């Protein structure tokens, strides 16, 4: 595993890499194994993506160097080698595994395969995003039985806005009959508000500033903060 920049692509293209992967019915998470992941969101806590071998959502915990934060973008393809102890025992985040070093950047993937992957992973509409009401829940309530990730297709919105009281960035969206307000941890969303010099964006205005029409929201359960795990939106994504 490279210890330098993640952006050191091997020969060939991401499309070639994706075509060469052998399909597996289940994700392989043994210590020392390698995952080829289509990145959906990259955050200091973890990198969320799709294991291309199994088509499964996964969150890879990466120890980013102090002098450089997470530098992966949506639809990057990376190879992540798992640590000898992948640490799959977090009851709040059953999809989480720990990498050995930095993921290796292999290229970027767009097009029909990405669209099919995301469409297949879109969460069915339920009463509550990520299975429980409200914006957070005590860590001790998690039992490892429900997912900590969901790819949501809003039925209304999304509306991106900055709260006046603390200047944090949030998104409001409808999902089935529920009206959801969640904090956003996507740097591109914050930049969109800055570029537009506005505190609220939606519809065509939001699409124009982002450069795409947001079709998916990558929703996730955070690591415990003050004993609670919080729902967040890690990325706004196009269809692919």
Write up this protein:
The protein is built from four helices and 14 strands. The two termini are 28 Å apart. Mean pLDDT is 91; it is low at 1-5. The protein is globular and about 45 Å long. It folds into two domains: 14-113, OB fold (Dihydrolipoamide Acetyltransferase, E2P), CATH 2.40.50; 122-237, no CATH class. By secondary structure, it is α+β, with helices and mostly antiparallel strands. Strand 2 (47-51) and strand 3 (56-61) form a beta hairpin. Strands 5-3-2-1-4-6 form a six-stranded mixed sheet, with helices on one face. A four-stranded antiparallel sheet has the order 7-14-13-8, covered by helices on one side. Helices cover 15% and strands 33% of the residues.
Q: Could you write a compact summary of the structure shown?
A:
The protein is α+β, with helices and mostly antiparallel strands and 240 residues long.
């Amino acid at each position: 595993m490279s210890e330098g920049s993640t952006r050191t692509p091997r020969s060939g293209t991401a499309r070639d890499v994706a075509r060469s992967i052998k399909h597996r019915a289940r994700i392989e998470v043994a210590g020392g194994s390698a995952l080829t992941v289509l990145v959906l969101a990259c955050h200091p806590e973890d990198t969320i993506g799709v294991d291309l071998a199994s088509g499964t959502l996964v969150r890879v915990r990466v120890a980013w160097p102090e002098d450089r934060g997470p530098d992966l973008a949506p639809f990057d393809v990376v190879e992540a080698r798992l640590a000898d102890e992948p640490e799959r025992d977090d009851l709040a985040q059953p999809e989480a595994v720990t990498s050995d070093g930095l993921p290796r950047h292999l290229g970027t993937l767009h097009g029909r395969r990405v669209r099919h992957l995301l469409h297949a992973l879109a969460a069915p509409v339920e009463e509550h995003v990520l299975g429980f009401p409200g914006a957070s829940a005590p860590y001790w309530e998690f039992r490892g039985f429900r997912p900590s990730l969901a790819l949501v297709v809003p039925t209304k919105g999304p509306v991106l806005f900055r709260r006046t009281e603390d200047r944090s960035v949030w998104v409001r969206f409808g999902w089935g009959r529920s009206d959801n307000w969640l904090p956003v941890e996507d740097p591109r969303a914050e930049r969109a508000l800055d570029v537009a010099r506005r505190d609220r964006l939606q519809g065509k205005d939001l699409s124009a500033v982002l450069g795409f029409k947001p079709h998916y929201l990558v929703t996730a359960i955070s690591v415990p903060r003050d004993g609670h795990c919080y729902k967040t939106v890690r990325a706004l994504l196009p269809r692919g």
